[in-house]
Amino acid sequence: MEKKIITISREFGSGGRTVGRMVAERLGIPFYDKELVDQIALESGFAPKFVEENGEHSPGSSLFSYAFAHQGIPGVMNGLSTADFLWNIQCSVILQLAEKGPCVIVGRNADYILKDRQDALHVYVFADIPFRADRIVRRYGESDKSPEARLQEKDKRRRVNYQHYTGRNWGQSQNYDVCLDTGVLGIQQCVDIICGIVERSKTEMTPEEKNL
């Protein structure tokens, strides 16, 4: 079946967002990253910065931090915790965007949310720590934490969030259609591979090809 929806899950610093943007540009389809955050913020009432920082992170943040992120809605909404409320909105928005037509969606557990769509291609982008550490320093600058500590902290929060809401292990190859190492392949080749898969999917594989 033709692959029209592409989800990009990524380790922090691997360049997954860049890969997704370049794929969308080449295929001429919408790219949802910042736009996705803005839509979730609009529908949830949370500030965009809060959605960006917490939508993929551990659901265990304190209600005190939520009090300054939301306007007019208390810490518990319709019996849901703030984190669960945000997750429900996130699922709804991603499903709506996928229904609109071909697109690339970065992060936000979209691979799981859209796991039942036969027209979705789920990609996981990763790289070794030296490659990612160098990349985040070049892109985001230095901080009071070491690059390695920043990588570990960010990935841990994404991993906990993913496991909490999906019951699956983040980064496990069986959860994706293709896993790409940007440190080995390079950003451009990863883009080429994804676009090649999408273009090839427009022609249904023969039984002989499937059994090769």
Explain this structure to me?
The radius of gyration is 18 Å and the shape is globular. It is built from 11 helices and 7 strands. It has helices at residues 16-27, 34-44, 48-54, 63-67, 82-100, 110-113, 129-140, 147-166, 182-185, 187-201, 207-210; strands spanning 5-10, 31-32, 76-77, 80-81, 103-106, 120-126, 178-181. The model is unreliable at 61-76 (pLDDT under 50). The protein has 212 residues and is an alpha/beta fold. Strand 3 and strand 4 (80-81) form a beta hairpin. Helix content is 53%, strand content 13%.
Give the terminus-to-terminus CA distance.
18 Å
The 3D shape can be described as globular
Sketch the topology as an H/E string, one letter per element: EHEHHHEEHEHEHHEHHH
Radius of gyration: 18 Å
Separate helix tally? 11
What's the average pLDDT? 87
Output the structural class: alpha/beta
Q: Major β-sheet, in short?
A: 5 strands, parallel
- Quaternary state of this entry equals single chain
Q: How many β-strands, per DSSP? A: 7
Q: Largest beta sheet: what is the strand line-up?
A: 2-5-1-6-7
Helical content class:
40-55%
Strand % is 5-15%
User: What are the segments in which pLDDT stays under 50 over at least 5 consecutive residues?
Assistant: 61-76
